[in-house]
């Protein structure tokens, strides 16, 4: 199965609006206790999350996984820092690229692939306001073209 494919549980659409995505990496994620059950139920939010590399490890910050309803005392902290599982060569490559100004690691998708939870992490460069407006114009123009084409097909 290709990278980024599987049952998508959560997407970070805001990341595509705020950043230019240069490269993507598929990473596993270390979970505790009932977190996977909450993820399978779709109780995940990637909106304000980000990733960093510290001490040779990739870590994911502020990803919100809601506590599992039937988890009682075995539930977890919803905003805890989670470790991402990447190959050593990928981590060393990311260390070099994130030290450049303007680059960040942003989670794009959380999905289930062959029974495992995966995160699609993107190496991203921040957009300026004029870039955001330009991408919105292009998106709107594409939508208008598709609408005109669809109307023409009906005739």
Automatic annotation (TrEMBL):
Q: Please, which domain of life does this record's source organism belong to?
A: Bacteria
**Native source species:** Neobacillus pocheonensis
Q: Print the organism lineage.
A: Bacteria, Bacillati, Bacillota, Bacilli, Bacillales
The record's listing under SUPFAM superfamilies reads:
Small protein B (SmpB)
Please give the chief subcellular localization of this protein. cytoplasm
Entry keyword set: Cytoplasm, RNA-binding
Q: What is this protein called?
A: SsrA-binding protein
Which PANTHER family does this chain map to? Answer: SSRA-BINDING PROTEIN, TMRNA-BINDING COMPONENT OF TRANS-TRANSLATION TAGGING COMPLEX
Q: Where in the cell is it found?
A: Cytoplasm
Q: Which family does it belong to?
A: Belongs to the SmpB family.
Q: What job does this protein perform?
A: Required for rescue of stalled ribosomes mediated by trans-translation. Binds to transfer-messenger RNA (tmRNA), required for stable association of tmRNA with ribosomes. tmRNA and SmpB together mimic tRNA shape, replacing the anticodon stem-loop with SmpB. tmRNA is encoded by the ssrA gene; the 2 termini fold to resemble tRNA(Ala) and it encodes a 'tag peptide', a short internal open reading frame. During trans-translation Ala-aminoacylated tmRNA acts like a tRNA, entering the A-site of stalled ribosomes, displacing the stalled mRNA.
Q: Where is this region: Disordered?
A: 132-155
